Amino acid sequence: MLRKTKNSSIYILMIIIAVLQLFPLYWLVISAFKDNSEIIGGTVWALPAEWRLSNFTEAWVSAKVNQYFGNSVIVTLVTLMFVLLFASMMAYALTRMKFKYNSLILFILLMGVMVPIHATLIPLFMILKNLGILSSRLSIILPYIAVNLPIGVYMLSAFLRTMPKELEEAACMDGCGVVKSFFKVVLPLLKPPLASVAIFVFLAVWNELLMAATFIQKQELRTLPLGLMNFSGQYSISWGPLAAAMVISTLPILLAYVLFSDQMEKSFTAGAILK
Amino acid sequence: MEKALSNKKIIALFLLPGLTVFLIFYFVPIVMTAYYSLQDWDGINPMTFIGLDNYTKMFTVDKSFWQAVWNSLAFLLVGVFIQLPVSFALALLVSRKMKGRKWFRNIYFFPVVMSTTMVSLLWVKIYDPNIGMLNTLMDTLGLGAWTGAWLGDTKTALLSVLIVTTWHYVGYNMLILFAGMQGIPEQYYEAAKLDGATGWKAVRHITFPLLSDVLRICIVLNVIYALKTFESVYVMTNGGPLNSTTVIALKMFQEAFLKQNFGYGSALAVFMVLECLIISWVLNKILTQEKIEY
To answer: Where in the numbering of this chain does the ABC transmembrane type-1 domain appear (chain A) (predicted)?
Structure first.
């Protein structure tokens, strides 16, 4: 009897915490379907009287969220591709190949895990300006690749160190060169850690604001976080369209979360242990 | 195989693409920041070498620098002494063998994956005196006397931002601690049960000591995250009102890109790096001293 009451009080506690975590998000989603009079005058938790989609069309078209969304997709995909390719190549070279500066390179990469990106901002601005790519997509893609490489290399080499060499050796016997055996044999085996790295990098890049705000000055190149911030300045009175834009920008994350929540947990814990 | 793996050309092929990007867009800038910090420079005209003057200004003249340091300290203290214990409690809750625990874990963790910009904009609206739900909610609950312009008042602004970062990140520590708890063998708890240690006693004598490594990681992570705080403050208050929420990263950003003090901004950036490195090094030293073996 005592156990039962204890258990149900724990359930109630957990539900209260869950409500505290979810209520702001619930308010965001229902606001996205309400108009201003309903938001200001109505009850906070009431569902919209009518599920209006006008906020979404306004955000998507008039407030150019479609453009920001597209920019974020391009920047994220390109960064992701290069981080995965470069990081796996580097991790392979650093764990399997024999050369002198192995530990020096690992040490330099470690700096990339430890030093906050804020410290690179001012010189990066000058470098990008001198290269003439300031305020182009490259001006954030290149730093994003650089920033996310170290953690990728560390996660992948940790995996490679535990992987037996037999398969590569067998491929070599069959006449595969190193390059060919890397792409045909090693990369497919790297899928699970690559998925972890991919999730990590996807979230980091999709959510990044500081570099985008510093290096992107053209309105048409803004990514979602930057676009949202600007949007909220312009639409300071109407919360509905902004809420709709925020819902849209979180959808890919929600989708990834529903599909890969286990993988996501793994990549977060792995990433944390590395830092 | 061995021969091919020590072929210099192949090694270069594998290393150089990534390493080049990393060096140019991460490593070189770190070194350049240190160099810039010794200059008086507006980013346009030629720079003049002024030695450690930027640092002298930072520590002695600039009052808002100390305000920023104190505010960062507030983020640090809240991270370690409020967020972490709450996360620990959450991790204990979701590691109990009960129905639906995965659901609760997912719900508590979800805010972590959302962008800080999003979360901050959402809370700006929640705190908004006109359309925000917080004041309306408090009115409904009969707490009308306590309502206010949360982010616009020097008395409540910092606390309001701290609440948001706590709300946003408790799930992160929870997940790491939960993963650690899963690694503790079940036999320990069973053995403890025979000795009469259940509930809180088991947590104190088994979970807590065996989790010390993970707790150490969490403390270091929280401290580093606190010292790096930028986005939440930038989006919610931009340091205001009256510098009451300003932090070092934001100050660095404003000095460099709004006031064109690139030299002084770089000195602030160097301060941030050293602060992060020294504090995490010290923490690692202190926290590894008392290692428990079973």
So the answer is: 69-260
